[in-house]
Design brief:
Helix content of chain A: 55-70%
Strand order of the largest sheet of chain A: 1-2
Number of strands of chain B: 6
Strand content of chain A: under 5%
Shape of chain B: globular
Distance between the termini of chain A: 50 Å
Number of domains of chain A: 1
Radius of gyration of chain B: 26 Å
Strand order of the largest sheet of chain B: 1-2
Strand content of chain B: 5-15%
Number of helices of chain B: 18
Shape of chain A: globular
Oligomer: heterodimer
Helix content of chain B: over 70%
Distance between the termini of chain B: 60 Å
Number of helices of chain A: 13
Order of helices and strands of chain B: HHHHEEHHHHEEHHHHHHHHEEHH
Largest sheet of chain B: 2 strands, antiparallel
Order of helices and strands of chain A: HHHHHHEEHHEEHHHEEHH
Structural class of chain A: mainly alpha
Largest sheet of chain A: 2 strands, antiparallel
Structural class of chain B: mainly alpha
């Protein structure tokens, strides 16, 4: 096959770096409100029928939304195999906790409604809470650790040796990132409930969402400040070969200073990205107060876009720096799949991603409208 | 088995995969059966078919959610526990997994919500389309997963790149149209259809025995028996194709399944019964069918089938060749370039590179394969023999069950065409008791395929022992215990919900008479 030479290796790597971001943001924007609704469930809804309202706002769509995560896993495997290998084995127990939370969440949605028993349902409500809160927290903590560098090294065979521990992940900076992630997804879940639910559930969601939006702004600012003051960045010190072989050990890396701000210093217009995070959250806060629904949800989604992209831009071209052996750090230029695989995966993505977006939009269109208590009482059987 | 990191990781993978595979076959088959039922409903407008769609759809939903939940683990398991594997073959193996998500799983998961929640929001045809989208998504999902698995059994279309220390795609077309993957796909989805058919058949038989929901039960049995009969025939035909391909690509797997230690004169006999003895390297008390294996595996009367001992001897040559490749690789790595090394080194790598994986088999005995003694090479060659007895027996039980399913489904097919489904009560009991059997066959099929591939993670390319993450034993033991605990609880809850839903039976449907106490059977012809 020579067709793949149509797009050079460097460009393909850049495209796949952007697509990595698209997948993470796609997950955080779609499944993010499911996680947020889960984390809000015990607080915005007190009675069984209220909880059913909240659950049924995400009932028909959470399964499809979660595929963003599965696709994210698969796409990282296919396009960035070393990233897949290092991060999932390094964050081993944290990944296990995420899996456990998502597994019980999936089951909770389905099984809660199968019995009327109050204790049965109360148990699953807490399961749904944990299923939303725990992944939101851990994803943020993981990003916080990635920014600081992860303690792994590669040997000459490119075997991976991880030298950290689970509790080492829970450092102050990472916890700030974890709380930011929770606040952001709770805000998003609240915006969704305000958009999709009727009555008291939507009311309470707006109140919680306002607090979460303010917390998002504060924690995002605090995280940025801590990154500037306390976190060493990484930079490549050897000549960069953007079309070189995917072998991280062929370069040299220095750790130290405010290297994570270098891209913003070199291209000040990139500051629009973090600005989007702040402006989006402020707009979501105002929207929740003013009871504007659609635009608030959009503002909250833009916040997520801004915050995640801020991290990506700050670290570029690094994807996963190594704190114990900076040379082993994974970057855009040395951690991708082969030229041919990136090309094939791009072709597949160009064909199927628009299709996925189209039918997802159609499904949301069919399910358009509010979930209210009256409908749940009438139509027993077609709802959770 | 000693509980080192390799065996624990293998145990964990087997646990989560076998568990996931409890739900997958039913999802594959039931999604299609439900779509067929809804098609009949849309074409005939008879409410009983709508009731059937909803009832079996409910059971589908209970099962589906656990398939999704346990599938999540599968997607991340490679990176978590098999990080060197992920690095070594991600360039090839990751692509089908990602395409599965994009092309198949999105379709399935997005429309499954609409299937359950959209009854009042969609037209009849619109809702039918969601049912088919779910069925199509599930089955396409299986296609991509088996393309990935097929590549582990027969790694075509890829080559080792010494600069990146991994396998990279050279010809994606070969990966896609890998004959092993295609045969496995049809064999596996057909097995899923049989599983769902026998599930529907058994549950319906129970209703007939109880004289409940008989109108629904009869029609469901008719669908299950005809669909299941076709599928069970397809399972056996494609299983046979797999045997033929195994001889082409995985001779050792075939010889081990047969407990065939010595090379047999063509056409080789098929050992129906025997007691393989790994230590003594022989199979005791064999009962053989002359010529049968030669016919199945080679489709000829005069092609010789190599036995285990011959294959081990041949492997010693490949290990020696692999060591040459390993030596050349070290030189290339030191030079940091393929072109900077002496032409002789490059030629040595090109000639022996495909056997590099065989040198890695020596890693169990020596750090540097170049220093291996002849005794160590001999031991590594014998490591190529998978556990013969489990393979031998798993295979025979699976095949025996396969033929039983044809018989069972064939019997009910005949009974249903003659409208005599409840003529023989004992046959209905057989159908009820047969419900767990397809699961046993499916799990054994997985064991045959994957134990038979050992000691390789990727046949001939990467030994399983090298593929693991460098995790602590305690970490893996902890997550293994966690998965077993979680999954067992969920399994019990799932079984409870399934049984409740079956006991409760279908919901009354608008346009259908409420079920009379004692249940009056509706004559089939009247509807």
């Amino acid at each position: 096959m020579i067709l793949h030479q149509l797009i050079d290796y460097e460009t393909l790597r850049l495209i796949w770096w952007v697509l990595l971001g698209v997948l993470l943001i796609g997950f955080a924007v779609t499944d993010g409100f499911d996680l947020g609704v889960g984390a809000l469930l015990p607080f915005v809804a007190r009675t069984d029928i209220e909880r059913r309202v909240a659950i049924n706002t995400v009932g028909p769509v959470w399964e499809g939304n979660q595929v963003w995560l599965i696709l994210g896993g698969g796409a990282i495997f296919a396009a960035w195999p070393p990233l897949y290998a290092v991060s999932f084995s390094g964050f081993y127990l944290a990944m296990f906790a995420v899996l456990a939370a998502l597994i019980v969440r999936a089951v909770g949605f389905k099984y809660r409604s199968t019995r009327e028993d109050a204790r049965w349902r109360a148990t699953w409500d807490w399961v749904l809470f944990a299923g939303g809160f725990v992944p939101a927290l851990i994803f943020g903590v993981a990003v916080g650790n990635v920014l600081q560098g992860v303690p792994f090294r590669l040997d000459a065979d490119l075997r991976i040796f991880y030298e950290g521990s689970f509790f080492g992940l829970l450092n102050p900076f990472a916890l700030v990132c974890g709380l930011l992630s929770v606040a952001m997804l709770v805000m998003h879940g609240a915006a969704w409930l305000s958009f999709k639910a009727e009555g008291v559930v939507a009311e309470r969601a707006r109140a919680f969402g306002g607090v979460a939006a303010l917390a998002t702004i504060l924690l995002f600012a605090l995280g940025g400040l801590a990154l500037w003051l306390f976190v060493s960045g990484y930079s490549i010190t050897s000549p960069v070969a953007p079309d070189g072989p995917s072998n991280p050990l062929l370069k040299d890396v220095a750790r130290g200073g405010v290297a994570w701000f270098a891209n913003y210093a070199a291209h000040p217009w990139l500051l629009a990205v973090p600005a989007l995070g702040f402006v989006g959250a402020a707009a979501a806060f105002l929207g929740l107060r003013a009871r504007v629904e659609g635009p608030t949800l959009a503002a909250s989604a833009l916040t997520i876009l801004g915050v995640i992209a801020t991290v990506g831009v700050a670290m570029f071209p690094f994807i996963l720096p190594s704190s114990v052996d900076p040379r082993s750090s994974l970057t855009v230029w040395d951690s991708s799949s082969s030229h041919l695989t990136l090309f094939i995966m791009l072709v597949v993505t160009v064909i199927f991603l628009p299709l996925v977006l189209a039918y997802t939009a159609w499904v949301y269109h069919v399910l358009w409208g509010k979930v209210d208590e009256a409908a749940l009482r009438d139509e027993a059987g077609h709802f959770y | 088995m000693e509980f080192d990191i390799v065996s624990l990781s293998r145990l964990q993978f087997a646990t989560v995969a076998l568990y996931h595979f409890l739900f997958v076959p039913l999802t594959l088959g039931l999604s299609l059966i439900v779509a067929i039922m809804e098609t009949v409903y849309v074409m005939t407008d008879r409410p009983v078919w709508r009731q059937m769609t909803k009832f079996w759809g409910t059971l589908f939903g209970i099962n589906f959610v656990l398939g999704v939940a346990t599938g999540l683990t599968m997607e991340f398991q490679f990176g978590m526990n098999w990080s060197y594997y992920s690095h070594y073959v991600g360039d090839v193996f990751g692509a089908p997994l990602a395409i599965e998500g994009l092309m198949a799983f999105f379709l399935e998961a997005t429309f499954v919500g609409l299937f359950f929640f959209g009854w009042d929001r969609l037209s009849k045809v619109g809702h039918l389309a969601t049912a088919w989208a779910v069925a199509l998504g599930s089955n396409l999902s299986a296609l991509w997963i088996l393309i990935a698995n097929g590549w582990m059994q027969n790694p075509v279309g890829a080559a080792f790149n010494p600069m990146t220390m991994r396998m990279e795609v050279t010809d994606f077309y070969q990966v896609l149209f890998n004959p092993v993957a295609q045969a496995k796909f049809v064999h596996t989805v057909s097995a899923g259809y049989v599983t769902a058919s026998i599930f529907v058949l058994g549950v319906s038989a129970w209703y007939l025995l109880r004289n409940r929901h008989t109108a629904l039960a009869r029609r469901s049995m008719a669908v299950a028996a005809s669909f299941g009969l076709l599928s069970s025939l397809s399972v056996v035909v494609l299983g046979d194709e797999s045997g033929y391909l195994a001889n082409e690509h995985q001779k050792m797997k075939l010889a081990a399944i047969e407990g065939m230690w010595e090379t047999e004169a063509a056409p080789a006999p098929f050992t129906a019964i025997g007691f393989p003895d790994q230590a003594a390297r022989t199979t005791h008390h064999v009962l053989q069918i002359p010529g049968a294996l030669g016919l199945i595996a080679t489709r000829s009367l005069d092609t010789t089938l190599p036995g285990i001992k011959q294959l081990v001897d041949e492997a010693k040559g490949r290990i020696a060749s692999g060591v040459l490749a390993y030596d050349a690789l070290q030189a290339i790595r030191t030079a940091r370039s393929v072109t900077a090394v002496a032409p002789a080194v490059r030629a040595a790598f090109e000639a022996n590179g495909r056997n590099l994986g065989y040198a890695y088999l020596l890693r169990r005995y020596v750090a540097d394969p170049r220093t291996a003694s002849p005794a160590q090479i001999d031991a590594a060659a014998w490591d190529l023999v998978p556990a013969v007895a489990p393979l031998f027996w798993s295979f025979r039980v699976m095949v025996g069950l396969g033929f039983f399913f044809i018989l069972l489904l064939g019997t009910f097919f005949v009974l249903s065409t003659r409208q005599r489904l409840d003529r023989h009560r004992w046959l209905l009991w057989v159908a009820v008791l047969a419900i767990p059997l397809p699961w046993i066959a499916a799990e054994l099929g997985w064991l045959v395929a994957e134990i038979g591939r050992q000691p390789w993670a990727i046949e001939g390319v990467l030994p399983t022992a090298l593929a693991v993450s460098s995790l602590g034993v305690a970490q893996v033991a902890l997550t293994l215990a966690g998965f077993v605990l979680f999954y067992s609880v969920l399994f019990v809850v799932e079984m409870g919900l399934m049984l409740r839903a079956i006991r409760k039976g279908p919901q009354p449907e608008h346009g259908l008479p409420a079920p009379a106490p004692g249940g009056v059977a509706h004559p089939v012809a009247a509807e």
